[in-house]
């Protein structure tokens, strides 16, 4: 079944292709000498500035108080010296005074700069070419409103850039194309991904390091039950963090880079949670209209907001009691609602406030006054003053008069006082109502995750430094695999790259190919660059398939079939810029790919999937969006089995060199003897053969017409959703289909709350043999994996699909081949079907598990039947039984 390598030159080309997959953050900036950098900056600032300028587009994720303001100004100053042009720093509202103060304090003499705050392009002199030392500042709001033509600038830095962390936000979607042409881009924040690790990739997208959708596919696995729930692939975790380190610096302390931490030790912090009671008489009603005696303590955002208003008086009382404990100390009073601000102003004499309708000038005046210690109490919202302000000089106490779900705003507010340069122990008091216990748990969980992320990156930078990471060496180790083979009486499987293994296989030795190819870069199964899922896009995937498909054609017997399982992919509008989810016609690309390599296209089998489950994964077909605009909604994505044939040797005849034959049905002659339907006497076979009726359905399309009724609502609603689904399918196969009755039945079930929202209850039936609606989705080897507590395959292939293809398109004893073996479903089913299985698999884990399944299949085949034990050669005749 195997032969020596066939095309060694092509193997070299293939390895070159794999090496080109490595995507590291490119360094396309410029070098500066240490003496060129402003000496007023701390040593760690000077090192980071040199690193960022060399990279050209980099992220500075430095902790609170590590001088991100200085570094951004210095980056813009040096860009102006080495690459003259307009330079821009985008800042949150209310923090421009911090930049002007920094420029005045640290930028003098040869390093002097001129900062100018602008609200629109009109404030840039028409003669300005970027040749002087002016660095422009503007707010995010001006950019979002289109008042600033970003394309005019050669360099830009985003201060408090965590606004980019939300992929679907207006800020990210607007900034990504606006800044695309800016040559030097930098981002700076102390909280790059306070909620989830995946938020980090949005900075890479903005900086031009890697497309965000590509990074999601490369590093994150999806929860198949819920859209948007992504976690790092365990086998990709190390590579992910090293990749991030190639374009971002995470710094918790100057000591992380080998510098002295003198003056950079965070103060001790005490965090105190204060729960206040609420008025349960306002608990309201449940969905059935029954009055509630007590409030639910597991609240979502909407319910928590209502509960917050009900607990306002109790929270203000607790705040007043806390202030009375230490009347001499200055305190920040954080709140979320305007009603809370007004209540604070009424309860706290001498308090100053920052709020939206007051105006930017007045707000900045109050921020500066509190920073300079001119008054004791400042009431403000985290979303207004939580970023960019440094209040640590005269304040070490913060009281959160309420809590919310926005952890980013919360942690930023905490660190207005908990930062380097703070001379006192900090006190954080957090007041919440008993109805907000879930909000507290949410905040504490995200806080812990934030600390884990920062610790992980601090570990990497301490280990490798800024420029010491040998990424080429680290990542190149993931190319290649040491081949390992296992074989039995009915199978040969190899732990190997699919291309390299196919090249070892003898020409024209395979009777059928059954495989589920990777869906381009939709999933990555291993940490290896050999992985076909480790590709940039569809074109890159098909380029790797160009090495495999010619080998599949070569090893397949002339006239035999390759059955290729594929599925189209949903492309989200926020990724493509289309604004609406569209569908990548992956199955169509596959057809033309295989035609290009010499296969004959024989048609496709459609496998219906559950549109309700698909929507839970993609949110593409939601009912609510359909109500707003039906043009946004397409249809669900079925799966397909594409049928391709290697041309037979003799093109003057349509038969395969070794035809796949099916037995004709037996008939009983007048004399009682069994004959074939063509009149020949033949020995009896164990089955009834291939009937004319089956041939007509296999060979001809069939469309059902409307007519008789389906089951009534009363007949179905009593069963419950799961038995209902099975019965509906069974009866639908026997009845004449009526679409309007189908819709009516679903509507009646929904009215009785019996239409499931997690899976499709009334699947549309099909009698067409090329549309398979009865595939058992859960009947895969993943069931055994779950039972044994082993790693489940990302995209398992169902037994039903494999069995039907093997029965239809191969002969007993044929080799059935799968280049992407996974858990070895195809060899496993081939053995049980009396064929021989052959496959390759790149994942060592899947390969080990798949070997066990193949040996189990051989053991099942070896178990003797009752007739074998009795020594009966032909169980079909009475004579043999006697």
From TrEMBL:
Top-level EC class, please?
transferase
Q: Which GO terms describe its molecular function?
A: DNA binding; N-methyltransferase activity; site-specific DNA-methyltransferase (adenine-specific) activity
UniProt keywords, alphabetically: Methyltransferase, Transferase
Q: E.C. number, please?
A: 2.1.1.72
Pfam families assigned to the protein according to its UniProt record, in alphabetical order: N6_N4_Mtase
Reaction equations catalysed: a 2'-deoxyadenosine in DNA + S-adenosyl-L-methionine = an N(6)-methyl-2'-deoxyadenosine in DNA + S-adenosyl-L-homocysteine + H(+)
Which GO biological process annotations does it have?
methylation
Q: Which InterPro entries does the entry link to?
A: DNA_methylase_N4/N6 (IPR002941), P-loop_NTPase (IPR027417), SAM-dependent_MTases_sf (IPR029063), SNF2-like_sf (IPR038718)
Q: Which residues form the DNA methylase N-4/N-6 domain?
A: 513-846
Query: What is the official name of this protein in its record?
Result: site-specific DNA-methyltransferase (adenine-specific)
